[in-house]
Specification:
Elements: H1 4-17, H2 25-31, H3 36-47, H4 51-69, H5 74-80, H6 86-97, H7 101-106, H8 110-116, E1 126-136, E2 139-147, H9 153-167, E3 177-181, E4 194-200, E5 213-217, E6 220-228, H10 234-249, E7 259-262, E8 275-282
Antiparallel strand pairs: 1-6, 2-4, 2-5, 3-4, 3-7, 6-8, 7-8
Helix pairs in contact: 2-3, 4-5, 5-6
Amino acid sequence: MAAPYQRIVQVCEYIQQHLDEALTPEQLSNIAACSRFHFHRLFVAHTGMSATRYIQLAKLKRASYQLAFEPLKVIDIALLAGFASPEAFARSFKKTVGQTPTAFRQQPDWTQWQHLFQLPHILAGAELMQVNIVTKPNQKIAYLSHLGAPERVLATSAQFIAWRKQTGLSPIASSDTFGIPYADPNTVAPDEFRFDIAGTIKGDVPANDFGVQTGTIPGGRFAVLRHYGSHDNLSDSVYQLYRDWLPQSGKELGDFPCFFHWLNFVHQVDECDLQTDIYLPLK
């Protein structure tokens, strides 16, 4: 039988994959292979919250992405989140986030969101040691630099998306999208943290009020590790690449930060179905 930790991982993955279905204590305890009484204690012990609260936060987290990045009506988002009315959804959303859905859509407080929606870091991450070596050419990019607290990166992402929509350049459907951290957010002061949001582009970026600039991701050899699931625990996969793979590989690091290639987005798929390639430049 799987260890308790592994069983809770399976339950959380099941929840993420079935957010639009009724999730009963019987279902979840069966997946955890224990009684309802023991399931509740086991789940709280590993996540710090009840399964009911976990489900509610997972639905509200998805709803927040839909509010910020999708043109869906609030009533439709409320129904997708399992609420009988937009009023009930608004009350729950404001109680949790501190903003009404409308206010969040207009000006999302990502700092508050980041704090509240840190679901337990037990969802799938990188597949152990599935590292490939690839060679890539130079890639011209449009990029917008985020400078400051890591919790506000999503606000910068929203600005980059707005530039994309307004200009039609680097369209998300036909361009690659990258995140380039220039430091580990766990080891630098917030005001020293830089993270570029980028997308491939064919020509140079015209002058604009968003602060988007033309840049290049230099070509060369890269170690690539695919991360599955939530972006909240991407750092675990990055550390795995540096700590476990690099010393055994005999490779030397290149002169460019590691970076992320977003293969899909949380407003398109469930969080558990996210896929992100982590690129580690090599000499």
